[in-house]
Write a structure and sequence with these properties.
Length: 288
Amino acid sequence: MMEKKQARLNRLMRNGRCLDIAVDHGVCNEPGFLDGLEDMPRVMEQLIAAQPDAIQLNYGQSELLQSRPGKNKPALVMRMDMGNPYNATTHRVMWAVLQNEDDPVLPAVQMDAACAVVNLFMLPDEPDLFRQCVKNIARVRADCDRYAMPLMIEPLVMAPNNGRGGYMVDGDAEKIVTLTRLAREMGADIIKADPTTDPLDFHRVVQAARCPVLVRGGGKEDLRQVFERSRTLLDQGAVGMVYGRNVYQHKSPSAVVRALMSMIHEGSSATNAWQQYSAAAESTAVPA
């Protein structure tokens, strides 16, 4: 089956490595996630010009990428599901459903996606949500095999909602390793995992995955710290990143993309990446 999926994997990953820029945040139904994504055509112009390996979208925005002519554009990663765990408000019922229940992977095939992605949420005291995710993955995996579509699974271990607004990342290495192993056992071709609290533990996640591992970015942080942590995680065996708010909520998303690409594909240090970002951001700054 992997041989049949290889054609799409070749478009997604250059020399086995990948930077995927996630801008599929609209289905989270959380206003703060949309800061920087108000003008999607403009965002897409910036990102396509910066040339990451892939851009992650939902079906309703995918034409902004796939309607562009020519071969030299990022690959499409299409999200299959949606849910409410990211909302700042705690809900009485937590849920995650497939966006197309009848034939969930068909839209990705129709839009010539290189990969499909689905969540595996593990929230405290929410076994029904976990069960929903398992059912979603089982259905999507079967269709991914049928269509020879690579499947990316996000094993997301979240900490209790303690009033900070929504469920936050739980960086416990033991929990992330265990859920990553489950995702691989369910048939993941690619894992998109949260970083461990101690980045030096991340090699354990890579070992459990036994397939390419991309690191999930999460909320916007100081960019120097993002680069430093990214370098450590790459050195621990990650083959790339899936970053969203740490790209599109910065003043020069294209400069962030170029710096991350240099780390992933050229082995640049965090210091060199910061220097590249600063130079690129300065050159594209609009005069006051």
